[in-house]
Design brief:
Helix content: 25-40%
Shape: globular
Number of helices: 8
Low-confidence stretches: none
Mean pLDDT: 91
Structural class: alpha/beta
Number of strands: 12
Order of helices and strands: EHHEHHEEEHEEEHEEHEHE
Strand content: 15-25%
Distance between the termini: 28 Å
Radius of gyration: 17 Å
Oligomer: single chain
Length: 249
């Protein structure tokens, strides 16, 4: 099995500055690229954008701050299911056999915030010809009620457990940018780019670009960050944007 994991950033598929607002044009463009691609096995993960982040921020829930308020749980998870349904609909319109995987029903954090995400169901879905689609969500967290699990974390967990061959991260920018707004071709250590990695300008409870780079460096396998224009080239086997690989040190 040659597995590709592709993350669609929340800012790519939603208008992140307007609550619960889809960016249908970009989602359609990315869905077209996925439909036209020829890949053996594909797992998709999408972020929360203006759906999940808005509600999580409103309830004060993040990756580290939890809540046992049922309204917080249903608001955040409900918003993410709504966004996931939009994504599935766009994919189904293009003949892609996409199926949902809701982390809230599968994943868990223990008392030290370590994430456990079973992947047997994802592996079986792939064997049966489906395209699993995971998303940022809330998950039960021992001692905290629920906390946020980011799409970045899910990418790392799925890619590591299923030994992914390729990992792509579709963002709103063409790669990780330096102080002159030029794409950094390769990152092998966080310290080398820490000064140029700022936080997201929009409401984001999962760490912005800095969090993305940290997560992908922890992956232990090569990954790429690129713009929606480069989804096709990534799925065709190229390495657009910024290559992130801690093993390259």
């Amino acid at each position: 099995m040659s597995l590709t994991v592709l993350k669609l950033g929340g800012s790519v598929i939603t208008d992140k500055d307007r609550a619960d607002t889809l960016d249908g044009e970009t989602l359609g463009k990315v869905s077209d690229a996925i439909s036209d691609a020829s890949v053996d096995d594909l797992v998709l993960v999408h972020g929360g954008g203006s759906f999940g982040h808005h509600h999580a921020s409103e309830h004060g829930v993040s990756k580290t701050s939890g809540s046992s308020d049922i309204d917080a749980v249903t608001d955040i998870h409900g918003a993410m299911k709504t966004l996931n349904n939009f994504v599935l609909s766009w994919l189904h319109d293009r003949g892609i056999p996409a199926v949902p995987v809701h982390p809230f029903s599968a994943a868990v954090r223990d008392a030290v915030a370590s994430l456990t995400l079973p992947t047997e169901q994802i592996e079986t879905m792939l064997k049966e010809g489906f395209v699993p689609v995971l998303h940022g969500d809330v998950v039960a967290h021992e001692g905290e009620g629920v906390t946020v699990v980011s799409g970045d974390e899910l990418v790392v967990s799925v890619a590591r457990h299923l030994d992914a061959d390729r990992v792509g991260f579709c963002s709103t920018v063409p790669g990780v940018l330096d102080e002159n707004d030029e794409v950094i071709p390769e990152i092998t250590a966080y310290e080398a780019v820490a000064d140029v990695l700022g936080e997201s300008e929009s409401t984001d409870v999962t760490g912005g670009m800095a969090g993305k780079v940290r997560s992908l460096l922890e992956l232990g396998a090569p990954a790429s960050i690129f713009s929606p224009d480069d989804v096709s080239s990534f799925l065709d086997g190229e390495t657009p944007g910024t290559r992130i690989d801690a093993a390259g040190e």
